[in-house]
Amino acid sequence: MNQELLIYLDGQIVPQSQAKVSVFDHGLLYGDGVFEGIRFYNGRVFRLEEHTRRIFDSAKSILLTIPLTPQELMQATVDTIKANGLKDGYIRTVVTRGTGPMGLSPYKCPKATVFIITASIQLYPESAYQTGLTMATVATRRPRHDILPPTVKSLNYLNNVMAKVEAIQAGAEEGLMLNDQGLVAECTGDNVFIVRDGAVATPPISAGALDGITRKVVFEICRELGIPIREQEMTRHDIFVADECFLTGTAAEVIAAVKLDQRIIGDGKPGAVTQRIITKFRELTQTTGTPIYS
Ligand code: PXG
Question: What is the Å distance from ligand 1's center to 212 Cα?
Answer without folding.
Answer: 7
